[in-house]
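Memo to structure team: turn this sequence into structure tokens by end of day. - J.P.
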Amino acid sequence: MNWLFDRLFAAGAPDALALEAGAQRLSYADLQRETARYAGALAALGMRPGDRLAVQVEKSAANLILYLAALRAGVVYLPLNTAYTLAELSYFIGDAEPSVIVCDPAARDGVAALAGGARVETLGRDGEGTLTDLARGRPGQFETVARGSEDLAAICYTSGTTGRSKGAMLTHGALASNAETLAGIWRFTGDDVLVNALPIYHVHGLFVATHVAMMAGAATILQPRFDPAQVLAALPRATTFMGVPTFYTRLLAHPGLTADATRHMRLFVSGSAPLPAATHQAWEARTGQAILERYGMTETGMNASNPYDGPRLAGSVGPPLPGVELRVIADVAGEAGEVEVKGPNVFAGYWRNPDKTAEAFTADGWFRTGDLGLIGEDGYLRLVGRGNDLIITGGLNVYPAEVEAAIDVLPGVIESAVIGLPHADLGEGVTAVVATDAPLTEGEILGALAGQLARFKQPKRVLFTKALPRNAMGKVTKAALRRDHAALYGAADKAM
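Reply from structure team:
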């Protein structure tokens, strides 16, 4: 038995629609056949159970099939953000030591230079490439490799406050239990159709959206990227939608969003970043439906969710999921403290990093999330901040230390502080405050970062100062910077 793969295909009727991507329509039987071919291709490349498969390709049906094939072949899937530069990729490849890397055909030469002993294959946005060519020559049957609940299914890299990315080891059991729980509490069935406009190199789009739909035998409309008009065009054929807060603010800005346009929908889910209360309220006023906000992270999957039945409270992420325990560790009872979690959804630790793994867990086995929150008398968790400097912009995580390290080495820079500031569209706008005594310009800083950092990590604005504010201990007071520049992204950015 393959713990996760078999569960993903258990509910779907063979002839039921599983995936629609543009003109492609694949049943669950079609997915079984195609995953067999791609799993056979991975085996033909010499991949064995436990080997790592690094994938940095554009979103497509073939990309999703490749992920499912990796599960089927027993290899460990390593999804990489398509925005990562070659400089960033070199670290992930060196750390994970994949035996096969799959990239866009146009990036092959650059990736091959970093690959070391790994085999490099290609897969384009159109589903074509050397890997597809190899898969076409394989039979439509493959003996699924047995994997247990404790075996690794994926490694997802998540940065730390030091700026050095850590590979969260996600097991078959953790991913399966989380998806089964969510499918149950969100009432997914084989009659559902999910619009998935999320990236599938990210936990939200790959593990939450894909797994939950498949666990119920539901269909997915896979869209290559988020486009408000395309999402609205798909809604009459759909029942459910998952997005980050930015998706909802941009849909609200579209004149096509009406109660009539959403009348076929039974569920809108938001996650990956805090949903502003104003967005929650505006959505309900426009559509008559309340967005269901949930809370999770790379290391744990989902931890809490507002209820399907019952009040969905703006500013709250709801009670813990069934089988998941949450606690808040505060100096004073009733005050905000660090949120800790325990349950079958929690990851197995950081790849080849026992020290960071040990730091992440308490002596009694709870995972330290780094988030600050309160659990009210109603049992709902309310997040009030983060114990670290994590910035969530457009649903993607940015760790300031990584950006600061890239800025601080530039000529004329004394030091920098990178902060997140309120942004009506992105949730938080990445902002750099640079101390300098040289005539630097914003354009010079941004130009220097363009080839070093993924676009979403690059600051939207660069501000200059003679010296950064510090406390009595000599530490930069980022809270003061956030307070002083809180209104930087005002009305002019709301339409961006």
